[in-house]
Write a structure and sequence with these properties.
Layout (H helix, E strand, L loop, with lengths): L27 E5 L6 H7 L5 E6 L1 H16 L3 E6 L5 H11 L4 E6 L1 H14 L2 E6 L11 E6 L2 E6 L5 E5 H6 L2 H12 L1 H15 L5 H16 L9 H21 L8 H12 L6 H16 L3 H11 L12 H10 L17 H10 L4
Parallel strand pairs: 1-8, 2-3, 2-4, 4-5, 5-8
Antiparallel strand pairs: 6-7
């Protein structure tokens, strides 16, 4: 059985037990055209210090990392670490590089941002999130996804103290990434339905404030799906703000529950069975249609919104055969079994096949 639990992953350092509940939210959020030049002012506003470790990928270093480094050079000593993957060994190397700096900056996509979260958590440094694409809500959340031999593991890490998102850079990225980010936010709809179901069936505590913010964020994207266009900064701004709001909802809740339910378990199963085929948000969007059908909601409306945005709505859209999608649907209950969702309610082989076929119907 594939559990994909973080229990066996000794990646995060142990923190001192504290009975109090901390709600960590980004203090500065800067979204707009050509805003990388405002990073020095953000650092000064937050009194982060005078030395930084900049983590980026090879391509994202060219697109944005060099600009960030140049902007900081006048007031800050900047060390650079190019990371092309996220792994335990790479994270340990970056932690060594971060020991003698004041703060961390992650410039890039999901892997880079997640790496920065973990490094900042383990080294007790603040970090700034500088996304180069709006492909998922990890740009603002405290969750980090780390690949293992059994699939991706979601860890509680360090949320960014600031987010600086240049809409020109984000809009220039492939539209597939922006559409995936939209799908990740729209999946909040069923994530909160699963959370409320777990509350009724299992007595799991809920946060009404986190639920309200998460739902509102998804509703705004669904009702404005026609405004999400390829390579337009207005669309990039709209989606990035939604992703930040989704991350804030998770910080309020103290968990990923407001944005991660059965549709995410389905996504992780697809990652395991068909690695590299679908982006995280894409498979979450497909899982959301299925989950909304099971919850008795407007699954057709969700499907229409995703299609309008340009996100996939069937396994075939991402090059995955239906049989594999059926296996993923059946496997979903084995992933994070402690997280109860509607996919844990006894889906059979026959019903799973019916649910996948439902995706293709008018």
């Amino acid at each position: 059985m594939i559990t994909m639990s973080a229990d066996g992953i000794k990646l995060l350092k142990d923190k001192v037990f504290d009975k109090s509940k901390w709600m960590q939210l980004p203090r500065d959020v800067v979204i707009g055209h050509d805003v990388l030049g405002q990073i020095p002012a953000v650092c000064e506003d937050l009194t982060l210090g005078h030395s930084a470790l900049l983590i980026s990928g090879k391509s994202t270093m060219e697109r944005a990392g060099k600009t960030v480094r140049e902007q900081l050079a006048a007031t800050c000593e900047v060390k650079t670490f190019i990371s092309e993957e996220i792994s335990i060994s790479i994270i340990k190397k970056i932690e060594k590089a971060a020991r003698d700096v004041d703060f961390v900056i992650g410039v890039g996509g999901g892997r880079v941002i997640d790496t920065a979260k973990i490094v900042s958590y383990n080294t007790d440094h603040q970090f700034i999130s500088v996304p180069t694409a709006a492909s998922h809500d990890g740009i603002a959340s405290a969750r980090a996804s780390v690949p293992t031999g059994k699939g991706n593991v979601s860890l509680e890490a360090q949320p960014p103290i600031a987010i600086v998102a240049d809409t020109g850079i984000i809009a220039s990225a492939p539209h597939r990434l922006l559409a995936a980010g939209c799908a990740d936010v729209i999946s909040n709809y069923t994530a909160i339905l699963d959370w409320e179901l777990a509350h009724r069936v299992k007595g799991e505590p809920i946060s009404e404030y986190a639920i309200a913010l998460s739902k509102m964020t998804a509703e705004i994207l669904v009702s404005n799906a026609q405004l999400i266009k390829p390579h337009q900064e207005q669309s990039a701004r709209f989606v990035t703000k939604a992703l930040v709001s989704s991350g804030v909802a998770m910080s309020i809740a103290g968990s990923s529950r407001p944005a991660s339910g059965g549709e995410h378990k389905f996504s992780h199963a697809l990652d395991r069975l068909a690695p590299g085929k679908a982006l995280h948000g894409e498979s979450c969007g497909i899982g959301t249609i299925i989950s909304m059908y099971l919850h008795g909601g407007d699954w057709r409306g969700i499907r229409t919104s995703l299609a309008t945005i340009g996100a996939p709505v069937t396994p075939a859209d991402v090059g995955i055969d239906d049989a594999t999608a059926v296996k993923a649907l059946l496997m979903a209950k084995t992933i994070r079994p402690e997280r109860f969702t509607i996919f844990d309610m006894g889906i059979t082989q026959e019903s799973a096949e019916m649910l996948i076929q439902m995706l293709y119907k008018d």
